[in-house]
Design goal:
Elements (H helix, E strand, L loop, with lengths): L17 H21 L4 H28 L5 H14 L3 H30 L8 E5 L5 E5 L8 E4 L9 E5 L2 E4 L1 H4 L5 E3 L4 E2 L4 E2 L4 E5 L7 H14 L3 H30 L4 H15 L2 H4 L3 H13 L2 E3 L2 H8 L3 E4 L11 E7 L5 H12 L5 H12 L8 E6 L3 E6 L2 E6 L11 H12 L3 E7 L2 E9 L6 H12 L4 E3 L4 H11 L3 E3 L4 H13 L4 E5 L5 H6 L2 E5 L5 H6 L2 E3 L6 H36 L4 H20 L11 H10 L36
Parallel strand pairs: 11-18, 11-20, 18-19, 20-21, 21-22
Antiparallel strand pairs: 1-2, 1-3, 3-9, 4-7, 4-9, 5-6, 5-8, 10-22, 12-17, 13-14, 14-15, 15-16, 16-17
């Protein structure tokens, strides 16, 4: 009657977990030993099978326990192995083998849960292609490793292939399937100038893509880093439990020795005394308590990753559950972050195209969405842009550059020089802002040259998200923006925010977050730009909007919304709170089972197999309870959020058009009433 370690190929993904294979081998040997005992097989056959059961199920936890002892750490695993060997030593071979089997099975389930949780997010990385088609300047195609692509390379993505790097489409149009990366169920259409992500599956069109991030900096690579951080960083509650576990385990060992020594000194029978002591050591071990915390939190991290939210670690989840105030950036967060020029007010009878060409050239090196708006407007007019030199950017204010020998400033109206020279510019700024636009000034050689009016589009899910965040926290979110008060109030009225703080520089946003914290609030800040990075780092939790977000903001944040779906923010808060409830329930359940079994053993007679079954069953139940949060069904539905937000969203009004005649060259600034304006440049 032979027993072998089951091959991984027969077990699917579970076969990749060594603990599962050893547990199954131990269980098979245990079952074979029982069968041998019920038949006429020689007694030595059952003995060999029981020995295999002990070895297969006990060698790994035993070795881990010994290694922990070398570091002066008392591991729960070693207590289980000692109890099983002690039972076998007094002739209770069956009871010891049962302990080994149940303990090995419990450990295998724990390992499988951890593997499943991590694998559900690491699956994102499997979609990244290993090879790419690089286009040389002369059009020659070369097959190269995707990891060798550099910023500025141009790659060809044929129909049915995966995008090898983050970048922007240079030519071609196609539908991209982003489901594996962002969770979006429908393909999204991408054309020239639009962003594509590594690992997304190309549809029927061919694309040439300009690489904007090296492989190590792609969204997929950042996801891998965050998964590693999430699995390594332990929650505060888990760290506390592990600290207590060490002292508690020493107490368990001391009481076990006392339960052996004292009764024997009083003349009690050796076998019964040892069995009771071993039963106590088993049922008092804190296995279920130790397992109560991390599986729920890691399950939520994996579930959030599948739905487009990358959470850096379990500590962030604990903090998310405590959030009672949400502060939202405006541009790129509540709006889509793709502004367009609605008005050009030129001053001193300047040529409109000439001013636009200078402003677009100065902005071209910038990463800010305003740069894309200006360069896009210039390109649409067929204007050729000169190379800017001496480029400098001031977050929250604007940019400065030398273009064709002229000093050009583009940005916030505070850049306007004092004196009568700026009188017309100030009038234009005031009228544009009254119409809900964002005013951007262009200054050439220290003289105001033009005032630009910009509009952005409110995200379709912004009002629903605000309504759900209000429901979760009990108070409406706060709007923190560098934009002008009129544009901020216009947007706030659309999405349902009443607390508005406008014209904030980066340091002002940080101060606003600190002021909220000083009143005892736990603040979540959601932002996307470089100017949001200090406030993201200051808030209790910072969430960056990934698609529109700057690298600095993504680095400073505790979590990243990969697919720019605002509804994942209230969803992950709700799931973090549910995880906290699950952890609390697990701890209460585990402590109750331990207490009941210990009292039963000390006050009466608790059979060893029953004690083992009760103890290990509680461990399995606690683990499976945490694993429930990994299911897609656990992710909070967004339907209720959308309906709640729609019910509270005020009717959109048409922004007032800028009166004509305030300066030469003003254009029609009417905005589409279905796409309310929200602006950009002052937000920098």
């Amino acid at each position: 009657m032979a027993t072998a370690v089951l091959p991984p190929s027969r077990l699917g993904w579970l076969g990749q977990v060594p603990e599962v294979r050893w547990a199954l081998t131990s269980t098979a040997a245990f079952a074979a030993a029982l069968l041998a005992g019920l038949t006429a097989a020689p007694s030595w056959v059952a003995g060999v099978l029981f020995a295999l059961c002990y070895a297969a199920g006990g060698w790994e936890p035993g070795l881990a326990g010994l290694q922990a002892l070398r570091q002066r750490v008392l591991d729960v695993d070693v207590l289980m192995v000692v109890a099983a060997l002690a039972a076998a030593a007094i002739g209770q071979v069956f009871d010891g083998a049962l302990l080994i089997v149940i303990f090995a099975t419990s450990g295998a389930l724990e390992a499988a849960m951890t593997q499943r949780t991590a694998a559900s997010v690491r699956a994102l990385l499997d979609v990244a292609p290993e090879r790419a088609v690089l286009l040389d300047p002369d059009g020659t195609e070369r097959d190269v490793p995707a990891g060798q692509l550099a910023v500025g390379d141009v790659v060809l993505v044929r129909p049915g292939e995966r995008v090898p790097a983050d970048g922007r489409v240079r030519s071609g149009e196609s539908e991209l399937d982003q489901a594996a990366l962002t969770g979006e169920s429908l393909p999204v259409r991408r054309g020239p100038g639009e962003q594509v992500l590594a690992g997304t599956l190309n549809g029927t069109g061919a694309l040439t893509v300009l690489v904007e991030r090296a492989a190590a900096d792609s969204v997929l690579a950042r996801a891998a880093t965050q998964v590693e951080q999430a699995s390594e960083a332990k929650a505060n509650r888990q760290l506390f439990i592990e600290r207590v576990e060490q002292r508690y385990s020493l107490v368990v060992v001391a009481v076990t020795l006392a339960l052996i020594a004292v009764p024997l000194a009083l003349g009690a029978a050796f076998t019964a005394t040892l069995l009771r002591a071993m039963t106590f050591m088993i049922v008092a071990s804190p296995c279920a308590v130790v397992l109560a915390t991390m599986p729920p939190l890691l399950s939520v991290i994996a579930n959030a990753g599948r739905h487009g939210m990358l959470v850096k670690n379990a500590v962030v989840l604990e903090q998310l559950a405590d959030i009672d105030t949400v502060a939202l950036d405006k541009t790129g967060t509540l709006t889509v972050g793709t502004p367009h020029i609605t008005d050009i007010v030129v001053l001193d009878n300047r040529d409109e195209n000439a001013v636009l060409r200078l402003a677009a050239a100065a902005e071209a090196p910038s990463e800010h969405p305003l740069a894309r708006a200006l360069t896009g407007a210039a390109t649409s007019r067929g204007l050729n842009l000169s190379q800017a030199t001496g480029f400098r950017a001031q977050p929250g204010r604007g940019v400065h550059a030398l273009v064709d020998g002229r000093q050009v400033l583009v940005g916030h109206p505070v850049l306007l020089p004092d004196g009568p020279v700026s009188r017309g510019a100030h009038r234009a700024v005031a009228l544009l802002e009254q119409g809900g636009r964002t005013a951007v000034v262009v200054i050439v050689d220290d003289r105001p040259a033009a005032v630009l009016g910009l509009s952005d589009t409110v995200r379709p899910d912004a009002a629903a998200t605000v309504a759900e965040l209000t429901s979760l926290t009990g108070r409406r979110p706060v709007l923190l923006t560098g934009d002008n008060p009129c544009a901020a109030e216009h947007l706030a009225g659309i999405v349902g925010i009443s607390d508005i703080r406008a014209r904030l520089l980066p340091q002002d946003k940080t101060t606003a977050v600190q002021q909220l914290q000083h009143t005892g609030r736990r603040v979540l800040l959601v932002g996307d730009g470089i100017n949001d990075a200090p406030a993201l780092a200051t808030a209790d939790v910072g969430i960056a909007i990934g698609g529109a977000g700057s690298d600095l903001a993504l680095q400073a944040a505790d979590a990243v919304v990969v697919r720019d779906d605002l509804r994942t923010i209230p969803a992950v808060i709700a799931l973090a709170r549910r995880a906290r409830r699950v952890v609390t329930a697990n701890l209460i359940f585990a402590a109750t089972v331990i207490t009941v079994l210990v009292v039963w053993d000390l006050s009466g007679y608790l059979p060893l197999p029953l004690g083992v079954a009760g103890h290990e069953s509680s461990t399995v139940i606690v683990g499976l309870n945490g694993l429930r949060l990994l299911s897609s069904r656990a992710w909070p539905t967004t339907t209720a959020m959308v309906h709640a937000g729609s019910a509270q969203q005020p009717r959109q009004s048409r922004p007032g058009a800028t009166p004509s005649g305030i300066a030469d060259g003003i254009t029609d600034g009417s905005a589409d009433p279905q796409h309310p304006t929200a602006a950009q440049a002052a937000h920098r």
